[in-house]
Structure formats: C-alpha cells, structure tokens
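pinging the channel bc i need a second pair of eyes. not urgent but kinda urgent?? the chain im working w is below, pasted from the shared doc
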Amino acid sequence: MAKNDRLGDLGDIFEILVTSYSQKGGNLPGEGGLCWEPAADAYETDDRFVVQVDLAGLDPASIEVQTDDRLLLVRGVRPESSAPGKKHFHKMEINVGPFACRVPISVTVEPASARAEYRNGFLFVTFIKGAGGQGGRRQIDISR
C-alpha cells in the first residue's frame, strides 16, 4: 500500500471518529472528562467579577453553568453543524463535541448573586463582589 493511500485511509477514519463522537451528544461532559475548552476571559470591575466565555453557535438551553464561591464550571456539547455526509477537511479549527470550562473565582464574591446571560455567541456570568458565602455548588439559569 502506498504512503498516500494510508494517509487517505487515516483521514477517513479520523473524519468518521470526529463525526460520530460529535453526534453522540446527550450526556454533558464530566468535570474530568475528555473535552475541549472554550476561550474565556475573567475580569473584575469596582463591584463585580465577570466571566465571559466564547460559545458561538450554541443554544443557551444546552449550556450548563454551576458555581460555588471558588469555581465557575460551564459545560455542554456543541453539535456538528456542517452538512451531513463524507467530507474532506482542508482546515478544521471549530471544536465540536463535549466542552468544559473551569474558571477559578479569584476574588471574594457572593455566590448567590451569580447571573448568566447569553448574547451574541458569548456567555456572561456576573457575580457581585462581597463578603463571600458558604454553600455547595449551585446551578445558574441562563437568560437571553
């Protein structure tokens, strides 16, 4: 078998694996699962701590946001959006499949103040800075 034939076969196998993995969907990735990590910024203003996550092309209903007073966890699954059928990629940079983003909360915040909003492909999670609080992890609903 020629080298080019083997590379072609490997490319076909890779495309099949990526497509089938991204189409499984269903379960959200675990905190230690195999997944990609979206780009994120974390910054503070005078009275807020804000995390902005790049999640273009997702339905906000498919994004899970959890927090406590030390960590923000954003996770979900980005489905394959290209046309069905066999494809020969010339460039492949858009991540699909399960994702997870963990952002340490580096300032004291009030965990109960957390609000999440999805706009223009970005998820914004905002906390009020304050005395902090005890308590376990909680789910944050996303507004649009």
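so Confidence is low (pLDDT under 50) at residues 19-27. and The chain has one domain: 3-143. — does that match what u expected or am i reading it wrong
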